[in-house]
Amino acid sequence: MSSPAFTVEHPLIVDQDFESDEEYASYLIHKRAYEEAMRRFAGLALCDWGCNTGYGTELLADVARTIKAIDVSPRAVQVARERLAPRGIEVTLYDGGRSPFADAEFDAVVSFQVIEHVPDIPAYLREIARVLKPGGTAMFTTPNGVLRLHPGQKPWNPHHLREFSAAELGTALRGVFPHVEVYGMFGSGEVDALERARVTRARDSAEAAAARARALERQAAINDALKALIPGAALAWLRRLRQRGPQTGAPARRHVVSPRLGTGELGYVTENLDASLDLMALCRT
Length: 285
What we know:
By secondary structure, the protein is an alpha/beta fold.
């Protein structure tokens, strides 16, 4: 199904069989947002807008009066439906335009790690506002672009169209919602350190790759001239060298995550937002 508002396919969130403590720490940051929503929205009619594999919908279902889920990825919806079917939770494949929900259907909508994927942010926000009851709440999370990007750098995650500072996120949300509060997530231990190391490495690697690409473009003419001078047999030998990779038949080991890691060290504050791991916003109609 084509999508005027969102990228149709996106990565599936892994919530088991993690390959590293770093991957697990990233998942815990996602999970902590759902735990915050559980605390704030218990007993309400909820919608998980961008449910991915339904791992968070499953958590919310433990406290919600009712819950529905929606996503634009056919793969994610299939996984979420299989996961949530035993609980009778409706998961809808969404085309990114008008949702199938009625006006003022929900007390609260959560939309976690979605806004950075959306081309038409005002339309996305207006549709969420439409399905909220008067006085209802929308909760959003998104990566902190100030932490993840050098000034002027494009998102290194190929699925992200834009990454926000706290101020930019607040400005975008206030275009639709009259009451907006923006928070930042911080950790007090190893989860915080693992996530900061991960995004720093990805940010710097992406910048270095971009610099190498620019240098290669500048050297293209010289390289072509040099290739013309190298005998064909030598070029074939160089190609064979490049194609040789590490030879190993050892099976991949399943990683066992550290028992020290958990969501208990993560929390939301309203200060020093540009240094936060992740951004969260509460918006009221």
